[in-house]
Amino acid sequence: MISESERGGTVFAEERQAQVVEYVHKHKKATVHDLTAVFSVSSATIRNDLRALERRGLLLRTHGGAMVTTKTRYEEALQERHTHNLQQKQMIANAALSLIDDGDTIILDTGTTVLELARLLFHKRDLTVITNDIEIARVLADSQDGTLILIGGVVRKQFRCAVGSLSSAILAGLLVDKAFMAANNFDLHKGASTPDLDQADTKKAMIAVASKRFLLCDHEKFGTQSFAQFAAVKDFDVIVSDRFEPREQRLLEQLGVEALTP
């Protein structure tokens, strides 16, 4: 635990707030007393954090604490997504790497799990990579020796990706071997979804031009839904996750979808 006297300032406040979001999402709810003990800060500091996080739509304040927001339009900010379940995302990325062959033409959807896959592509040769994610493009521009195509469109500044009709129009003129997709939410009956309609349309365009489609999704997202569906379960050839329940594997098998774990 880190005390208030050990670190301070805006940067630490942002780091702590990201950790508060992660803690509440892991435990579904938390009291002010819980959070002061975990982070070794005053109750006033925690209450300020909770007010700031509620304004950003990341948590719901309750009497004496906070709980996970369940709104279908909720979308975790990029900073929180980068650190949340990082180990699981890296495990999923390692498993997904085995699905890529030298010489492939692939789409990398925007998302922090797909970003972890992008960090591993130096293991492959002569790839053509198409992405709408600015951070993924930056990583590949520095490390990948193949061809990189950055899809344009309206930039979602908080999430560093391009979406909208321009993105979809560019994608419609392409044919690719494989698409590696991300999802904010995934349900075995309702499919993959995201809170943003423009984001959903761009994801649909990616799926439409790929010969094979792979969903990279940590198990914590299973059984959740958000505003805009972009794919049914059967639209994917393989779903890569850190784990599956036996009933989930059975259902995927019935749908002809492979369940892949690290």
What does the secondary structure layout of this molecule look like, with pairings?
Blueprint: H1 9-27, E1 29-31, H2 32-39, H3 43-55, E2 59-62, E3 65-68, H4 78-83, H5 86-97, E4 105-108, H6 112-118, E5 128-131, H7 134-143, E6 147-150, E7 154-156, E8 161-163, H8 165-172, E9 176-181, E10 185-187, E11 191-194, H9 197-208, E12 210-216, E13 228-231, E14 238-240, H10 246-254, E15 258-260
Parallel strand pairs: 4-5, 4-9, 5-6, 9-12, 12-14, 14-15
Antiparallel strand pairs: 1-3, 2-3, 7-8, 10-11, 11-13
Helix pairs in contact: 2-3, 5-6, 8-9
Quick tags:
Arc Repressor Mutant, subunit A, 2 domains, Rossmann fold, 40% helix, seven-stranded parallel beta sheet, alpha/beta, disordered N terminus, 262 residues
Describe the structure.
This protein is an alpha/beta fold. 40% of the residues lie in helices and 23% in strands. The chain folds into 2 domains: 9-70, Orthogonal Bundle (Arc Repressor Mutant, subunit A), CATH 1.10.10.10; 85-260, Rossmann fold (3-Layer(aba) Sandwich). It is built from 10 helices and 15 strands. The strands form 4 sheets. A 7-stranded parallel sheet has the order 6-5-4-9-12-14-15, with helices on both faces. The chain has a 3-stranded antiparallel sheet with strand order 1-3-2. A hairpin with a 3-residue loop joins strand 10 (185-187) and strand 11. The model is unreliable at 1-11 (pLDDT under 50).
